[in-house]
## 1
Amino acid sequence: MIGLQYTLFQGFAHLSAGLTSGMGALAAGICIGIVGDHGVRAYAQQSRLFVGMLLILIFGEALALYGLIVGLIIATKNPPNGCTFTGPSPPNI
C-alpha cells in the first residue's frame, strides 16, 4: 500500500456520505411505515384511496433515493487544494 494515501478529507467525506444515505433511508422507512399503516386502514373503508396511497408511498421512497444520490456526490468529491493531511507521521528512527 505504498503511495496510497487516505486523507482526512476522504475519511470525513465517506463518513458523511454514509450518514446521509442512512438517514435518508431511515426517513423513507418511517414515512412508508406510517403512511402504509394509515393507508391500509383507510383503504379498508374506501377502496378508491388506493391510488393516492400508492403515490404517497412512491414519494416517500424518493427520500431514500435522494439521500443515496447526495451520498454518492459527497463520496466522490475531490478534496480542495492543500487538504492532504493523512494523520500523524511515524517517528524517524
Note: The mean pLDDT is 86.
## 2
Amino acid sequence: MKHGSDQNFQKDYNEAQILARTFKIAIINNWEFV
C-alpha cells in the first residue's frame, strides 16, 4: 500500500466516522420526538 493511498483511506475513514456519529445523533434525536 502506498503512503498516499493510506492517507486517503485514513481521511475517508475519519469522514465516515464523523458521518456515522452525526447520523446516529440525528436518529437518536428523531426517536426522542416520536
Note: The chain is about 90% helix and 0% strand.
## 3
Amino acid sequence: MHHHPVKSSRIHSIAYDESSGILEIRFRDNKILQYLGVPPRIFRDFLQVVSKGRFLRRRDQRKIY
C-alpha cells in the first residue's frame, strides 16, 4: 500500500487498499492501525478533512463507517 503523508500532529500517513478495503494509519510514534472493510468514500473523506485526528475519533466511535 502507498502511504500518503498528511498534515496532522499525531498521524504521519494513511494508506488504503481498495480491493481489500483496508485503511492503514501510521502515527508519528510509528504505531500502525488497520481498519478492515472500509468503503472508498471514507478514505477520500479522510484525505480531505482538515482535522485527521477528529475525523478518526468520530469514525472510530462509530466503527469507522
Note: The radius of gyration is 11 Å.
## 4
Amino acid sequence: AAGCGTVAAAGAGALALHLYRQRFNSGGKHGPSATEHKADPGADDYDEQLRRLWGGPGPKHFYATMEEWPKKWPAPHDGKALVTGGTGGIGFYVVKLLAKLGFEVIVPGRPGFEAEDARAMEAVKQAVPGAKVVLPEAKLDLGSFESVRLFAAAMRASYGHLDVLCLNAGRGGSKSDPRDVSVDGHEAVVQVNATGHLLLTAELLPLLRASKAARVISQSSGARHHAKLEKVHDIDGTNAAEFNAFDQYCLSKAGNAIFTKCLNERMVEQGIDNVIAILADPGMSCTGVNFQHDLTKSLLGFIGGLTKVLHNVAGQHAADGALPMVLAAVDPEAQRNDWYTPVGGITGPPKRGDSRKDGTPDKDPLNDDVCPRAMREAFWEQAVAHTRAKL
C-alpha cells in the first residue's frame, strides 16, 4: 500500500503498458509453489538473482552493516540464535549477519530442500569465515504441528539454551487463491505464519528460559495494518463466502503482533523476566512472497502479475529487509513489544519504531485501542486450541 501514491503518479497509459510487459508468470501455481526453486542461495550472484527475479534495487545498507555492527554489537559469549526460513530470501541474510556478529546460528531445513539448504549454509560459511551455522538433521515444516514438536524436541536434546529466536519463515496468499488446508486441518497461511511459530516458541521455551536474556522476534509486515481484525474470531477462515487468502496473510501478520503482546503479558504474569518478545518488519522487501500475494492485484486492485514493477518503484532488496530483525536481536535498548522497521517505513536502514507515531497508528494491532486485549485473547485462545501449546 505504501507504494500506491508513487505508482498512481506515473502516466497512466505508459504505466499500464510497462506493467503489462513485465507481468510475472507463475505457471498457474499459487502460494509457495509459485516461487520456489527460482533462485539459488548457494550461488555467488544470489543478490543479483533476487533482483532479476523480483525487481527492485540491489542491497544498499546490508554490506556496510556487515562491517559496522560486529564492532558495535558482538554476540554474547556462546550466543545461540535460531532462524526459521533462514535458507533463502530475507532469512538467509538474517543468518549471514547473525553469524558475522558471532552467534552460532541454527537454521532449520525444509523437507525436500536438502541440497538447496546445504548450499545456502555453505554460502554463509564462505561469506563469513569461521561462521558457526548449523543445519540440523531434524527438519521443520511449520505446516505440520507434529513436525514442529519433533524439531523442537531435537533442539532441546542438543542445546542447553537459546538466546535469539527469529520467527521469520512465512508464505503468502492471493485474493484469487483457493483455501489451502494444512495436514492438521487448519488454514495454511495462518498456520505457517503464526500458529506454527507460536507452537515452536512454546516448545523451545525451556531453552529460552535458560538464557541470561532471550528474545523472541516475530517477522510481521505492513500487511498487519490492512488486517480485518473482526476475523480474529475465525482465524481458520471457515466462511467460504468471505474467504480471501490475502486477508488471511494480513490476519497472520496482525497475529504476529498479537502473539508478541500476548506472550509478553504471560511472561510478566509468570514472573519470567529474561524472555522478551519483539516485532520486526522488513518494509517493502522484494521477495517471492509478494509475488505469491500477486500484491498489485490483492492489495492495490490492479490487474494481476505486476508486483515486479511495484518493487522497482518502491522496494528494497531482501538483504536490507533483514536488518530490522537483526537490530531487534542486538539493540541493547530493546524492550517488550518494541517494533523494528525501516527508517523510511518501506525502505531504508533500520530503526526502533513507535507504533503510536509511525506508519498508520490507527490501524496497528500493536496499539491497544486498535486491538484490545479481548480481541487479542480471541486469537490466542484459538491458536492454543489448534496447537495444544502450553504457554
Note: Strands lie at 80-83, 104-106, 132-134, 164-167, 214-219, 275-280, 339-342, 350-353.
